[in-house]
Amino acid sequence: MSSAHPVQVIAVTGGKGGVGKSNVSVNLSVSLANMGRRVALLDADLGLANIDVLLGLTPKRNLEDVLAGECSLTDIMLTGPGGIRIIPASSGTQKMTMLGTMEHAGLIHAFSEISNQIDVLVIDTAAGISESVVSFVRASQEILVVVCDEPSSITDAYALIKLLNREYGVDRFRVVANMTRTAQEGRNLYNKLTQVAERFLDVSLQYVGQIPFDETVRKAVQRQRAVVDIAPRSKAGIAFKQLAEKVDLWPLPSTPRGHLEFFVERLVHGAAE
């Protein structure tokens, strides 16, 4: 059943592992929920699912069970902090891109079921530039690239942007600097990425801010909680709230059916290419 309800689909990615991508995904999702948005968070790291671990949740079923036709997407969704709905990944199933025709149809049907229940779908992609990562990112409406102050972070982020731009024509990316020591450090990271990307690629990069290094984040991870949940007034908590306020102003999709079914169709067709 098609829906006219606009759903914003945001992929959080970065190329490199260890840049805090999942933490950004969780805290952005909770911050948006705290602002009144109905948010679903999809753990798209199909080999090493970790959103449930970050939040101390124990999924009984996951996306693999939905694709097998054993349950609906609503059945597997977990409720997280702020009321966010979490869609757990199928850990150990690397190849989302190896789905057959029936699974493709099942995926489209599963997501169309929830399109009227959510306003935002945040996708926490895996690290690297595998086919699975590329499929999820290409299908999304907005791409948030997370970078941190490590040479390999900039190199890997550039590699992902280059692949998406040259192979698939993706030309718009948003950048957030994570675990920064100063505001200037975040701006410098963005400038480094912009200099190389705009020199060699036909892309537009927009800086959406920085999340400061904050010991409170580590404590929140140890407690399996979102930092915006247990310490909203911490430096990181405030920064995540500010990031969510910016994301809240991004334009809603203008596709006739909103974006969720369009997202799934592109995900499926991208995987089938």
Automatic annotation (TrEMBL):
The organism's place on the tree of life at top rank: Bacteria
Organism of this sequence: Dasania phycosphaerae
Keywords: ATP-binding, Nucleotide-binding
GO (cellular component) term, any one: cytoplasmic side of plasma membrane
Record's keyword annotation contains ATP-binding: yes
MF annotations from Gene Ontology: ATP binding; ATP hydrolysis activity
Name this protein carries in UniProt: MinD/ParA family protein
GO BP of this protein: negative regulation of cell division
Coiled-coil residues: none
